[in-house]
Write a structure and sequence with these properties.
- The model has no long low-confidence stretch (mean pLDDT about 85).
- The protein has a two-stranded antiparallel sheet with strand order 1-2.
- A hairpin with a 4-residue loop joins strand 3 and strand 4.
- The protein has three helices and four strands; from the N terminus they run H-E-E-H-H-E-E.
- It is of the alpha+beta class and about 130 residues long.
């Protein structure tokens, strides 16, 4: 009993600051490893992630086969209206004369179609082309 006759309470002692910092660091490292080596590679192998016109700032995940079908339909529609195929000889000539190079085409889903977006800021090199 204590001085006043009441039973003493056992004090809970927390971890020392150094132990807490060490454990926190290990947990952060474990979570970081799990995300970078397991979760993100799995998501990339099974899903295509993109934003949409109608979804605001939300990210949408499409299963790869579904996205492939959507992309094929969109590319056939875009090939008929806005874009055309370029042969290897024409591509070589354009890459030699143009300073912009090739642009990557990104497709952003809308409610009924897709929106094509090209980024022309960086010069991109095409695999298999000398230059």
């Amino acid at each position: 009993p204590g001085r006043d006759g009441r039973p003493r309470r056992r004090r809970r002692r927390g971890l020392p600051a150094s132990s807490h910092a060490s454990r926190s660091s290990k947990v952060r490292s474990l979570v970081s490893f799990a995300f970078t080596q397991v979760v993100i590679p799995f998501l990339r192998s099974a899903f295509y992630a993109t934003e949409t016109q109608f979804g605001g700032n939300r990210v949408f995940y499409y299963r790869k086969p579904v996205w492939s079908a959507l992309r094929s339909l969109a590319m056939s529609d875009l090939s008929a209206s806005q874009y055309r195929g370029v042969g290897a000889a024409e591509m070589r000539e354009r890459l030699e004369t143009q300073t912009m190079g090739c642009a990557m085409l990104r497709l952003v889903p809308k409610e009924k179609k897709v929106r094509p977006i090209t980024m022309l800021q960086k010069r991109r090199f095409v695999d298999g082309m000398d230059g």
